[in-house]
Amino acid sequence: MKDFKLKLRELTLSPDRVLGIADEKGVIIMASDEKLVGEQDAAIRAFLASGDTQSFAGDRTYRVIDRAGGARLICFIDGADELSAGILELFSLWVNAELKQYDDFEERDQKLKLSFLKNVLLENELPGDIPLKAREYRIKYNVRRLLVIMRTKPDEFKACHEALMARFGDREDDYILPMDEANLVLLLETPDEENSETREAVFSKLVADMKEEAMADVKLGVSMNFSSLKDTAKAYKEASLALIVGDIFRSKTPEVMMYCNLGLGRL
């Protein structure tokens, strides 16, 4: 988005025609005059309530841009005349095109990132390449993590994936990896002080939430903690083993199979 801001500043026509973008709360998030960023524009809420696509209010002209997921951005320009309206319409078209290009890049980047993580846990990456690619994809290398395999039925897979995305999708350092039509892998950062009983309670709640939100009966295989991305493959094997033998060496919650509770089952 840094490039986008630079381009926005370059679009300034003259000091009396400031261009900018605000969110639905009226907070200015980008502007050709950086001093305006963070300020609140009280007229925006009234403009949105009117239902108009473009309108004048006070000494500014506003235009709505619809974004994916129902969110909206509001482009504005100083001035409330026909020239301002024309410039704002062109500016809005440019913003739409730039945001689409940015979204396409982010989507491609996310796909490459998830593909890399899958290759790591399936041992399809050379050990020496893992830290280099992790840096390239902006993935933390040395951080405490936990790997969880969620097993569900094929006809419940989509609902479970959507429920997990709603829960974890906005966490920059947690990852959801669809493996096949019945298995989803969660790669989660974990706090240092969390113990196994606390963790089992957390995942028991996740199982219950999947039942309520996705109408799905799931089972979880949970690995031991690991502190380096290169150990992801080992953690994947642990979580897989927990699912396989968990029914024999049952935990307090049969739907949550934790590798640390397997005892002799590890052998």
Structural write-up:
The protein is an alpha+beta fold and 267 residues long. It has two domains: 2-105, Beta-Lactamase, CATH 3.30.450; 140-266, 2-Layer Sandwich (Alpha-Beta Plaits). 40% of the residues lie in helices and 20% in strands. It is built from seven helices and ten strands. The chain has helices at residues 2-10, 43-50, 82-121, 130-136, 157-168, 196-213, 232-245, and strands at 19-22, 28-31, 54-57, 60-66, 72-78, 145-151, 175-180, 183-189, 219-222, 256-258. A five-stranded antiparallel beta sheet has the order 2-1-5-4-3, with helices on both faces. It has a five-stranded mixed beta sheet with strand order 7-8-6-9-10, with helices on both faces. The protein is elongated. The protein starts with a helix and ends in a 9-residue tail after the last strand. The mean pLDDT is 85.
